Amino acid sequence: MDNNDDFQSILERGISFKKGGPKESSPEKVKTKAKKKKYITGAHGSGSAIQKGKYRKQRANRHKGK
Q1: What digits encode the pLDDT tens for the residues 2-13?
Q2: Longest dimension (CA), the chain
Q3: CA pair distance 23, 21, nearest whole angstrom
Q4: Does residue 11 contact residue 5 with C-beta atoms inside 8 Å?
Q5: What pTM value is reported for the model?
């Protein structure tokens, strides 16, 4: 009979979903060099960074002439 009472109360009052409750402790942000200018352009010397910089430059210039 409890199920019927629960069902009836849901029909009458609806279901409330709590918003903004206590969150789990989040880890601190990780600092990254990935967005710094030297890493974006590949100027710091590693081969993969130079290659990525080349791809970024090509992608940026792709629609400039139109």
Answers
A1: 678 888 888 888
A2: 73
A3: 6
A4: no
A5: 0.36
